Amino acid sequence: xxxxxxxxxxxxxxxxxxxxxxxxxxxxxxxxxxxxxxxxxxxxxxxxxxxxxxxxxxxxxxxxxxxxxxxxxxxxxxxxxxxxxxxxxxxxxxxxxxxxxxxxxxxxxxxxxxxxxxxxxxxxxxxxxxxxxxxxxxxxxx
Length: 142
Prior knowledge:
Elements: H1 3-20, H2 26-46, H3 50-76, H4 102-141
Helix pairs in contact: 1-2, 1-3, 2-3, 2-4, 3-4
């Protein structure tokens, strides 16, 4: 597959999965496992040395989690202004009350959506790529 086709598929799938999750990127995190698997398979085909494989795998995984970060900033970043509005109603916003205070729960929700979710996608994709490389290298040694 050409690189531009891969980029278009990554962007579209990130947008579609975020839309299906209604702004909560749980499907994007699970998609990270597919990203890691595909990145490792592609890198094993295209590159002979391990350093080339690992760098390309990490770049692709970082690109996809960066897409999720940008999308989450677009979705949830506009809600940050509510923190500075004294008339904001945090209790009826619709986010889960993770902590006891509604404002602290809202801050925790924004941190979870904007920062932690793309990081979890990166971890899932790197883990999946590692397992794929481990299995592939074990089968080559036999």
